[in-house]
Amino acid sequence: MELFRDAKIDWLGRKWYFLSFSLIFSVAGILSMLFWHKIPLGVDFKGGTQIQVQFASTPSENHIREALSSAGVKDSIVYPIYNAGESANTEIISLPKASDTAQDAGRTVVENALSSGYHDSAFTIQKVDIVGPTAGTQLQHQAELATLYSLLGMLIYLWFRFELIYGVAAVVAVFHDTLITLGAFSLTNQEITLTVVAAILTLIGYSMNDTIVVFDRIRENLALSRRESLTDVVNRSINQTLSRTVISSGLTFLTVLSLLVFGGSVLRGFSFALTVGIVIGTYSSIAVAAPMLVAYQDWRKRGGKVANLPAKRARA
Amino acid sequence: MSQNLKVKTAVILACLVVCFYGFLGIPHGVSPAALKQAVADHIRLGLDLKGGTHLVLKVHVEEALGSTTDRDVERLQEDLDKASITGVSVHKADPVAHPNQITVSGIPLNKASDVRSILTGTDYVNYDVTTNSDGSETLTMKPSAIRDLETTTLAHSIETIRERVDVLGVAETNVEQYGLGDNEILVEMPGVSDPAKVEDAIHNTSKLAVYEVVSGPYSDDQAAMTALNGVVPPDDWLVHGNTSPNAPDEVYLLKRASIVEGTDFRDAQPSNDQEGRPNLVFTLTTEAGDRFYKFTSTHSKNTATPASMAIVLGNKIKEVATIEDSIRDRGEIHGSFTKEEVDNLSLMLRTGTLPASMDTIETRTVGATLGEASIHQGIVAAIVGMMAVMVFMLFYYRGAGINADLALMLNLVILLGFLGYTPGATLTLPGIAGVILTIGMGVDSNVLIFERIREELRAGKTAAAAVQQGFGHAWVTIVDTHVTTIVSAAILYLFGSGPVRGFAVTLTFGLLANLFTAVFVSRTIFDAILERKNRGAELSI
């Protein structure tokens, strides 16, 4: 069986569609990050106390809230989490602030409030995350640095392996993926946690994979046929690698989807980031990175400069 | 089979055996339970999977700076007295903003050079000495000395916490420096789901020290300030506390420099005094004993300068005692202690005292049941994902699909072997996700190669040539794609902690193993198939 045998799709001819598609999603994400849900930071970054409680039977959130407020716990947020094939007995109780000096206080207060004020069923505390202001700021700073270094690392590697323009095009594409993935978190109001950042960094690497496969082929084809226009070479390269791109990404997508469905609530954000990111990353290799190479060449042409993209030396 | 192929097959089989041994050892049977136990014995699980507590502590190393300069103030005063230079005042001009600075003022003109030679002598090499316009001298601790002090304080803190946490009897506890911020310590305690218990052992047992009482008691801060004419002398500080369990809070003015403190105690045992109240019997180190003797013999109640001592625990006065007689290295402390405090205190003094206080800035606890559920969910997701990939490969690439599926399974075995062999590698929940992702990404190498082989076949090449070309062309691309992902994973490893690190580790191991399985192993399988076929036969791909 074969998909896309001898595909002859004019990808670059559709670049305006791609551009508007990317713009719509990026802008929607940015608008949401600025004006709607902002960037919904999880407890890892904004600090606070997050307690995951499992009840023996499906709990009443109102009763939980009553128990908390009668114990004087203010500003608590209570919401359920779901796992595939389980009844919704698990709730997250989150308190906005944790101090650096009396960290465990929030947990103790919530535990006592539930034992004395919640009588519907027994409960067990499954997971507690308490992040003080110092650690929160620190983690946020580290996540930003890691993302930045990751992008820089990619740029340098591609510069070294190809040429600067390939690196720039790939990094722009990956930045586009990161932006849209973050946007998706903002639009769906899901919390960005440490593991989500890990997923995003993985995406940076993964999305780069797809781009490299296409770039490798472009370079190879450029060396073979110097008379063909760059647009044709790029189109042909994308089409030649289309089967691989679709199958590989499709399979990775399947595994990640399995993680999203079966992997449980702890990994939900992580799997969501990967699921969205793999689709966007695959799309951007074709629709953002490759057209940028052509756009760069056109721009150089208009400047009256020599417009040859660097090609690979022909293999012996 | 050709010689070359035999060698390759042997390499692969050896690798398989070694890796199986890495994560299984020699299991005590082949029942699912025995195998499960074997895996559990060889693969270390992260706290998020086996349950436990993870704490990040920030050490206030600046306190060690303050207490070191306090001691040096005393030492310098003694040295000046010894040299018969009188009327000189040694103090810290601003102990809060500049704990690293000592000021020597009121130096008589004719003694200036003597003072200078003491200050620049070998005893105070840790300080830079500057002469001010009014003739006073300022000692500023050198940045390198401060760094050394901070390093030793942190190392000492880690050592102390380790000893204390060991007392709790939790296996596989991990205490180490935490790289994310300055002066931070990571404490990981598997199986402990009550952070309060850990914190009690480490955190709430704060600094114990004995100070000379200057004046007091006062009923509150206000009263104290009035008595002091509104100014706390620079060498002194105000401390709250009560001297018996139910007594009201009082305020004393104490000397800033301690007589003895935590690190000076060699041993301490909980006991009871004559009235049955909990007390503490202690032994001091020889050096501290000398210091204590000097103080108590000059300040006991029968001397010309009687004074009291305040015993301060975590910045709260626990006892104020008049000195009955001179004490050298053995004594007892009683006061407003509860039985628990005495037990904690003696444990703490025996295991060494923290050189500085610390805050817990991050606490994470995972219950064992959630950990088990996470493992279960992770394994289900991995099996479903892997099945989906394998079925697709079989369906899409037929004969070559078997090849890819074999390579994929071997990839998994090697990855688990790596995890079993590498000390310090732990499998975390994101790590399981890394395994799943490896399956998806690993198969990419096979797809790249197979697609290329198909292309070459379409271009009219023979099966053998197409395989050769396919691997050749795809190899460069495969290396490139692996490098980018491994760069990402490396950055994650450097910047991440705990679970995220586990992810970076499995992803990296998985991809490295993939280079071997997708390229070397797949190629060997192809070669073996081609060898059996007649020249020109079709390849199932």
Structure description:
The complex is a heterodimer of chains A (316) and B (541). By secondary structure, chain A is α+β, with helices and mostly antiparallel strands. Chain A folds into two domains: 12-41 and 136-302, Multidrug efflux transporter AcrB transmembrane fold, CATH 1.20.1640; 48-131, Alpha-Beta Plaits (2-Layer Sandwich). In chain A, 63% of the residues lie in helices and 9% in strands. Chain A has nine helices and four strands; from the N terminus they run H-H-E-H-E-E-H-E-H-H-H-H-H. Chain A has a four-stranded antiparallel β-sheet with strand order 2-3-1-4. In chain A, a hairpin with an 8-residue loop joins strand 2 (77-81) and strand 3. In chain A, helix 7 (194-224) runs parallel beside helix 9 (268-302). Chain A starts with 14 loop residues before the first helix and ends in a 14-residue tail after the last helix. The model of chain A has no long low-confidence stretch (mean pLDDT 87). Chain B folds into three domains: 3-51 and 367-532, Multidrug efflux transporter AcrB transmembrane domain (Multidrug efflux transporter AcrB transmembrane fold, Up-down Bundle); 61-145; 205-363, Gyrase A, domain 2 (2-Layer Sandwich). Chain B is built from 14 helices and 16 strands. Chain B has helices at 3-24, 32-42, 47-50, 61-82, 112-119, 143-167, 195-202, 221-227, 286-299, 339-350, 368-421, 429-458, 463-495, 498-532; strands spanning 52-59, 89-91, 101-105, 127-131, 137-141, 174-178, 184-190, 208-218, 236-241, 250-261, 265-272, 278-284, 308-313, 316-322, 330-334, 358-366. In chain B, the strands form four sheets. In chain B, strands 9-10-8-13-14 form a five-stranded antiparallel β-sheet. Chain B has a four-stranded antiparallel β-sheet with strand order 6-7-1-16. A four-stranded antiparallel β-sheet of chain B has the order 2-3-5-4. In chain B, helix 1 (3-24) packs antiparallel against helix 11 and helix 12 packs parallel to helix 14 (498-532). Chains A and B meet through strand 4, helix 5, helix 7, helix 8 and helix 9 of A and helix 7, strand 16, helix 11, helix 12 and helix 13 of B.
